[in-house]
Design a protein that fits this description.
It contains 13 helices and 15 strands. With about 400 residues, it is of the alpha+beta class. The relative contact order is 0.16. Bound molecules: coenzyme A.
Length: about 400
Amino acid sequence: MFVFRLKGNLISNYFNYFSKKLSVIFENNVKKFCKQLKKTQFRRLKNLKIIMSKINAALTGIHACVPEYILTNEELSTMVDTTDEWIQSRTGIKERHILKGEGKGTSDMGAKALLGLLEKTNTKAEEVDVIICATVTPDMLFPATSNIIAHKAGCINAFAFDLNAACSGFLFALQTGRMYVESGLYKKVVVVGADKMSAIVDYTDRKNCILFGDAGGAVMLEPTTEDYGIIDADLHTDGSGKDFLYQKAGGSVYPPTQKTVANREHYIYQEGQSVFKFAVSRMADVSADMMTKHNINPEELAWLVPHQANLRIIDATARRMGIRKEQVMINIEKYGNTTDATIPLCLYDWESQLKKGDKLILAAFGGGFTWGAIYLKWSYDGSQVKKLI
Ligand SMILES: CC(C)(COP(=O)(O)OP(=O)(O)OC[C@H]1O[C@@H](n2cnc3c(N)ncnc32)[C@H](O)[C@@H]1OP(=O)(O)O)[C@@H](O)C(=O)NCCC(=O)NCCS
């Protein structure tokens, strides 16, 4: 994507018109643009100096919030008929964190992650332009959780909205945020991934309650003309998968009634094996394709950052990409599946090891079905980042 910095006495209307034209028409074809430029009214503008520079959206900071309470496999085995051995061997999970306390929701974790992010990146709350929150467990159906997060963090100048793409939500939100930055219109875009999965988990259902945990993470996206940031994204949706992983009641098709509550239809429903098969093939394919498309050798890749749903799915993806286990961020044993928070939580846990220029592939899949991969070049040395107490 290209934008132009204009020198001269320009009216802001021209600039807006210009930016929109650019983002729509001229992504890969500057020559064509120059031809068109001659035909437009801009031709008449004298002394117009155009300096072309490619703007990338770079991740310039990361922070996360993990609630204190730890729900171990041992404790779960006192609640449902399961064992630590079964859970670990089938999923890789040892424990997960749960947000306790009346009136606490997803926005509390999102806001905490955002406040930490502002501190780490020396950003004033008022400087944030946009907040996008990926979540499947909003505080309430409306207003948007991002709205509440913005308020809690004091981001009075930001506009904010939620995005739901199930467990792929963080990637979809990152790609959306990237577009805002690359358009040249917004300078500080925050992408939050946060979920209080414990709010929709049925703790009498042993097939599902072992899988999920609560957390929130936030990243800052900012423009750079250097060769860092988000390079490519390949995102997909297939609505025929909706019956395999969903929350039946509570929306407009089945609004909450005494019957839906009695039938436990406000909890996650999942056909685990179907989701498993789908996830293994799609997440592995899209990640391997991304490497091929950008000629990335397995040894060149610094990190695969996969959605943390099941260790076996992560291992299969790494094998398909031809990379070693040491190149994969895995923290599923500590947190379980925190849905939209898994990827920022990995980046947060590994931040001090990330180096400027590292090539990363972020990959996810989720209900819907949704899946995708993002290729990015890391933009700072994580070892230099100040630690928050
Ligand atoms: C959920 C999942 C771990 C189940 O593992 P699985 O190997 O497919 O297990 P199955 O569902 O086939 O169940 C096998 C047996 O274990 C039993 N079982 C299920 N959960 C159990 C538990 N927590 N403890 C002990 N036994 C359990 C089942 O009842 C079944 O017993 P049966 O053969 O007597 O009927 C696995 O399917 C999975 O990870 N799927 C993908 C889920 C996912 O990634 N979701 C998130 C998408 S973003």
